[in-house]
Prior knowledge:
The protein has helices at 2-15, 118-140; strands at 18-21, 26-28, 31-33, 36-39, 42-49, 52-55, 60-67, 69-72, 75-82, 85-88, 93-100, 102-105, 110-117. The chain starts with a helix and ends with a helix. 26% of the residues lie in helices and 50% in strands. The strands form 2 sheets. Strands 2, 3, 5, 7, 9, 11 and 13 form a 7-stranded parallel sheet that branches. By secondary structure, it is of the alpha/beta class.
Amino acid sequence: MFSDNKKDKHMVETKSSQNIIAQGTKIVGDFNSEGDFRIDGAVEGNIKTTGKVVVGKAGFIKGTLQGTEANFEGKFSGKLALSGTLTLKPSAHIEGEVVVGKLAVEPGATFNVTCIMKGTVKAMNNGGQQQQKQSETEKTA
């Protein structure tokens, strides 16, 4: 009974841990993780995580990033797909394709991308259809 509780506790601790890629470190390749990331070094490849990704001022990602949320102070080049929020600090430099749920850009950030915001597109489409139906109803009345 006690060993099961310890096992469950350990699993919770593992999920809340943060992976750190320190400045001066370069990783080439693909990796998956359930934990959060802090990247102050360079990553070339594909990253897939259910956690939050924080890219420091010296951080750089070239490739694909799939995740929930990301905060950028550093650079990104490639395809970025997030189900949650992408936050760009003034020193951020983002290039490529971006698909996000929400976007927060602070003044000074560079954002040279093609961007799709999933949540907003659905709301606009539904609103447009409702508006069109109202105008058709008004015509027949």
